[in-house]
Give the backbone structure.
Amino acid sequence: MGRSHMADLSSTLFPLIPLRDVVVFPQMVTPLFVSRPKSIAALEQALLRDDRLIVLVAQKDPECEEPHREDIYQIGTLAEVMQMLKLPDGTVKVLVEGSSRVNIDEILEEAESFQARVTEQEESIVDDAQTKTLIRLAVEKFEQFVKSTKKINPESLLAVSGIGQPGRLADIIATYLGLEVSERQKCLEIFDSTERLEYVSQLLSRELELADLEQQIHDRVRFNLEKTQREYYLREKMRIIQDELNSDSEQTGEIAEYKRKIADSKIYGVALERAQKELQRLEKMMPQSAEAAVIRTYLDTLVSLPWGNRSRDVIDLKQADKILAQDHYGLDKVKERILEYLAVRKLSKKPQGTILCLVGPPGVGKTSLVKSIAKAMNREFARISLGGVNDESEIRGHRRTYIGAMPGRIIQAIKQSGTKNPVILLDEIEKMTRSYQGDPTAAMLEVLDPDQNENFTDHYLDAPFSLSEVVFVATANALDYIPRPLYDRLEIIPVSGYTEEEKLAIAEQHILPKLIERHGINTKQLKIPSATLRKIIQEYTREAGVRSLERTLATVCRKVATEVVRRKSTTVRLTPQLISKYLGPAKILRDNEVKGPQVGIVTGLAWTEVGGETLSVEVNTMPGKGKMQLTGQLGDVMKESAQAAFSYIRSHAESLGIDPNFQDTHDIHVHIPEGAIPKDGPSAGIALSIALISAISKRPVRASLAMTGEITLRGRVLPIGGLKEKVLAALRAGIKTVLFPRANEKDLHDIPDYVKKNVQLIPVAHLDEVFSIAFKGQTKTSMGSKSTRGTRLATRSTRSKQSAGPIRLS
């Protein structure tokens, strides 16, 4: 193996150009485009030299615009500038020929250009058997590479095959391979010619493997493409032959079946055009293709919709009244409004824009009322549950570009009903929520607007479908979460909770007969007297509706059925004394039955989504410096009501017989039990005032009394909402007297006569009236005297699980 020797060029300065993405090898002629000012200046300096030599070296980062010494490689090429041409855009095109490898000893970064001192690297010619074998193998590999890639001119083989020097052969092959700059630079930095040729041979073997793999992939793709084209050609040929023969085969098969379905379904307008267009696409497709399956699903959906099928309206008010009476007990005002709605639909031939919305607590019969409306109109019924819907596509449908796309819930409900004029129940409409996927309440605006829904376009169908004949009826538990634009399209019909007498009648006439039949027993095997039912209602359920009552009675029926099967008993008469045997101990204990007046405890009334509720307001005083603490998870409005009550008491302390300086010596703690439940609203104002006065003055509040009303700083009692639900809650809790704002007297006609007979309803307009009733028989001057603390509640309060949501004291 020969040794390389170095020529001394260190005394000479050469201009230098850093190159991006290019490595110039010795003995190679390479064109370059130069645009950086320093590089152009270096070229001009090289042309002024007699030998026209310049140093070309690759930079490590091609994105670097202003390279320095550390940004370029150590080994470069000394080259001669052969030609230079300035282009109109300022770029210079130059043709250079590599001369030799050089080691860069020093770089001078001048203002105009780079200058470098270099040492030339020269190599001796090696001629032995090993080198010759290596040269022959490299030439053979290069020949295979040229034939497999077909990207290199075959004439290049002639130039390569005639080279007997290993170093020069390695340099030429490296220029033809698509190598990275780092790999070319490494080839430049290997001074041993045999070692350099071995390295290039390894790179050449790698490129050969990649070329073979690429060819295999190309052949496989071409085969699949040719197979598809062949099948398409044969299919088209068969279709043309059938057309020429005018055979009857067109009327058979899948396409003929879809044509028949489209004709039978009475599709019209844009939808018919869509169906025909998709059918034509299906004819030209391979049956096994994924797109064909999507088109089939779309066509199946289109032809299954009731484009021309509708129910015949039969509106008979007498029959409708009879149906409502059979299915529901009480709810007279709701039934009256439904009959008015049906009467207008019977007389008016135009679709009504009125959208009824039944609002009330769970279990009061909202869903069954809508079913009765459909039954009375002789229409099909469909239910859409909107609870938890947070995607606009649930209403408008998904576009067919998505995998698994389907129509929205409106179109699905119509498809399910089989007619284009069903009664559709929009259940729990207030529980739709907005998310990043869109606002379903905004999409519902188009559905419920009679001016827009005639051309309702589902994203999946991509064609209008008229909703003008559909009767939409919505239900909700509360109106607080319904957006205002949607609320304006609804006619609200309140559905209040049932009284105890109504629950008793519903249980006797509806629930119990249905459960007895469902459990396979008869009225002889199970008899439940009215007194027993009343006790079950009072002690085992506390709700506005009757769902819990139905579940409780179902428990009794199951146990009786078990006894009948075991032949332990053939007849069960469930008396009040036997209830605990079948249902266990009482679950609801009367929390307001007191044996005497209470100090600092007042019963307030609240409204929740599941009906009215009673709640205790408790106040304690203790030595301190006038701090008032509010607990029980109270909202801001309720805290402000407590502050207003406290301010009123302080400003009227003298007239109330209270020490004017009581706040300087006492701390006050206001608590509303069941602290895990959020509470808010202004209607606890008078209850908070009376509880504060009672605790400060140690004067007991009259027993079996509840109150509701907002107060002002002047002591006026302002109106509240939900009076009927609150009074019903008081009746369920055994309250005998309820104080309410005088401005709410207009709401008394909504309260059943039975409730008015069992609960004394007293309107008040000012706190003075509340004082005279709450502290009946006691004078204001006695408020400062201590009295014996009243007897505690007979039992600890328990609240129905169904009212565990936020409490609103409206």
Summary: Residues 716 and 766 are 5 Å apart (CA to CA).
